[in-house]
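Retro notes (design track)

What went well: tokenization of the new backbones is finally stable.
What didn't: we kept losing track of which sequence belonged to which structure.
Fix going forward: every design gets posted as structure first, then sequence, in one message. First example under the new rule, 219 residues:
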């Protein structure tokens, strides 16, 4: 018999994060959703905190023969990818392998920047509380790249909020931010998608609809 999923969808997951974030009493925090899926989780967070919803660009670098296994990530604001040295070594990836994947994902990052961010006013995070939201952590490499970029931009305090993550992923990211909030800390043998009833890949149209809807809700 199929186990019941932890979350109906990303909207439900975002609602589950609000009771963890509200007690922090942050003043006008910046809420960033990791594109693409993290933006759908961040939308109810931003709405519940009455602050703008901001997209954050990051691309996982997948092992060429197993793309879902991330060996690194490329984040906006940095031309240098963050690498998981253990996975790079285990998979025997050469500098040429890494460069080929990086170059391909950099092109997709640029495309998404043109689609999602062009013309969008995003505040300077320097000296501002920032909440980075994703739909879950597996290896955590994408979140690591984004957190380092936001830290370099001066965001403080810097908070990572995710619906679910295994304990080791949280431990690995502890030094990358000031606080990690997670609704469900547990092993995820079925992967993040297996913990959702609906975990479809968001389209460009869905992402843009979320951003337009959030802009209307924000005073």
């Amino acid at each position: 018999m199929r186990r019941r999923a932890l979350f109906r969808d990303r909207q439900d997951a975002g609602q589950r994060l609000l009771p963890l974030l509200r007690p922090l009493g942050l003043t006008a925090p910046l809420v960033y959703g990791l594109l693409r899926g993290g933006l759908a989780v961040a939308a109810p967070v931003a709405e519940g905190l009455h602050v703008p919803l901001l997209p954050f660009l990051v691309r996982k670098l997948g092992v060429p023969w197993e793309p879902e296994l991330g060996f690194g990530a490329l984040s906006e604001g940095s031309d240098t990818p963050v690498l998981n040295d253990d996975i790079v070594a285990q998979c025997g990836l050469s500098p040429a392998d890494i460069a080929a994947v990086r170059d391909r994902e950099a092109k997709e990052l640029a495309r998404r920047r043109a689609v999602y961010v062009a013309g969008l006013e995003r505040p300077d995070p320097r000296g501002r509380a920032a909440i980075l939201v994703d739909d879950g952590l597996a290896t955590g490499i994408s979140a690591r790249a984004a957190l380092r970029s936001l830290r370099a931009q001066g965001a403080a305090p810097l908070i990572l909020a995710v619906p679910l993550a295994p304990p080791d992923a949280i431990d690995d990211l502890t030094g990358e931010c000031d606080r990690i909030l997670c609704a469900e800390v547990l092993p995820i043998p079925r992967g993040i998608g297996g913990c959702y009833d609906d975990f479809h890949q968001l389209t460009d149209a869905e992402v843009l609809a979320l951003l337009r809807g959030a802009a209307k809700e924000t005073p």
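Added context from the reviewer: The longest strand covers residues 66-75.
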